[in-house]
Amino acid sequence: MELKEYTRANREAWNEVMPKHQKVNKVDLDTFFARPGFVIQTDKDVLRMFDKISMKGKDVIHLCCNNGVELMSIKNMGANRCVGVDISDAAISEASERSKKCNIDCEFIRSDVYELPEHLYNSFDVVQITSGCIGWMPDINLFFNTCRKVLRPEGFFLINEIHPFSELLPFDNSEVENRLQIVDKYFHDGPIIENTSLDYMGGEQYDAKTQYWFVHTISDLVMALNRNGFRIMDFIESTCDVSAGHRKIEQLNAQIPLSMVILSEADGKIGN
What we know:
Structural class: alpha/beta
């Protein structure tokens, strides 16, 4: 399949599930963001990275922003221009509606991240991606190249993501009794193709549209950063589950990496 075919299919899968997510959390999120200055982020490692690069006054773009609540929180922390991009029409519609309702000045754009409008290039001090972004990317090197293009010189790239090691372990909805049993491989030659529920909010089971998930290893990520001229400033692995799919393992306190935070700076030449 061509890259565009993967992203088109994933767009349809996300448009299908977003109304299910909204049934669960839309009212609560509207209530939370009606409070002036509300910030949804609580992870101490992420907040430390925010302090490290000082988000106040920064121009920030959040790629794969979903319903925009993390970006709206960054705006509430004092960021300047805030732009969110997501492939899902339903997610962007929700984000735009909430930001207007709560009077939080963010711009939301419906776009495939591989086809960003060029007026966004060289326009931001910080590009952020968060949980459940990287796995939808068929080409990680090309995606990180896009992240580099939207940044100004010496801009920051903040990744708060699912740790690829967690992909080896059973998800909460698995019937496997041993939560620490290895049930999948680390290295994949192609995408994981599924029609399973994407409703991690309400847990509704349904026959979902076909979706394509890509497991990128740590070396894939590090080398993609390197090739695109990013210098890693900080890299933290954590036992916290940011996927909403490994809560049972998190509760075991098994000291297994379930998530990671990577902060890098655009300060080198783009390689091959």
